[in-house]
Amino acid sequence: MRFLLPETPKASSRQRSTDLSDENFKRLIEAMHEGVLYSDNNDKILYVNNSFCELTGYSYDELVGRIYSDFLIAGKDRIMMESKVLLRKEGIGDQYELQILRKNGELVWTMVNGIPIQDDEEKVIGSMGTYSVITEVKKTEKRLKAINQELNTFIYKLSHDLRGPVASIKGLANLARTEILDPESLNYIELISKSVHRLDSILTDLLEIVRIKENAIYTESIAMETLVDSILHSISPQEDLKKMKFTIRVEAGLNFVSDKKILSAVIHNTIDNSIKYKDSTKDVNIFDLVICTYHTGIRIIVDDNGVGIPYNIHEKIFDMFYRGHIDSKGTGLGLYIVKNGVEKLGGSIHMESEPEIGTKFVIDIPTIFN
């Protein structure tokens, strides 16, 4: 009996196969810490090593000759295993996580590497799997997921609850401007307004981050020209825009299926980043936005001639609360939102930047099919 190593370049049968009857090979299998199981195309167990017996709690004689999916696989994983068996029959190997039901009823998480077995004529006659126990890894993963969930809930509740008092302070500051005439007092009111506006921006961004991370994706057909117009309109009152030369090119009639809120947050924060980091020493601040069809999705290109990003911090710009410039007006969350939004939508982002020359972001997002 022979088993075929997956994804192996074409070679002779001897190079691509290993004879199970070879004693040296069997000793190697028995010495492995991972459990090893051989089965035929009908899921009947042909061979297991000592490590697999220890993993399952069954003896060799209790395992060999039985259909492993009948007693080793939990019910919820049996459908998945049927698909894996079909892959083996097609000569395809893969890796996956699987819970093994031990003899004592305990469930053990394993990482399985499955590969097809071939006979001398290279016909698939079964499969081989190596089983590594990852129960502790899964427990740690579960604990981290719970901690992350609690942290996101805390951030959301804190940000949401603080919005009320912040709105009250903003309102009182605006009222004070109309009633206070003393210049020095008005200066203090203005400082208060700037600080509370910054706090409000941080809370808004934190809420956006939690929404992206926790909410399910809602897909709809998005008219990209309309979406971009709406985003530009929302930022148009900013004084910074008066000195910028905008070039907007959105593919005519482009409709794209995705999550509108997340996509809007991605585009908005990428544009906002260019505006915040324009180079005030240059006569003209250039901003180019291109959105077009790309493969099965869209490509978003944001290009500017701003201050650029120093090479030594290229890897940090997507970190939470990271600000690359001392005089930054941002919260340090904009590009973090962009990165999380792109990842949520299954896309990718690439950045090119040179100090004093400018920065270019290329974002590819696939269509989300229902």
Q: What are the key terms here?
A:
370 residues, alpha+beta, Beta-Lactamase, Helix Hairpins, Heat Shock Protein 90, 6-stranded antiparallel beta sheet, 5-stranded mixed beta sheet, 11 helices, elongated
Structure explained in plain terms:
- This protein is 42% helix and 25% strand.
- The protein is elongated, with a radius of gyration of 29 Å.
- It folds into 3 domains: 132 residues, Beta-Lactamase; 82 residues, Signal transduction histidine kinase, dimerisation/phosphotransfer (DHp) domain (Helix Hairpins, Orthogonal Bundle), CATH 1.10.287; 154 residues, Heat Shock Protein 90.
- It has 370 residues and is of the alpha+beta class.
- The protein is built from 11 helices and 13 strands.
- Helix 7 packs antiparallel against helix 8.
- The strands form 3 sheets. Strands 1, 2, 3, 4, 5 and 6 form a 6-stranded antiparallel sheet that branches. A 5-stranded mixed sheet has the order 8-10-11-13-12, covered by helices on one side.
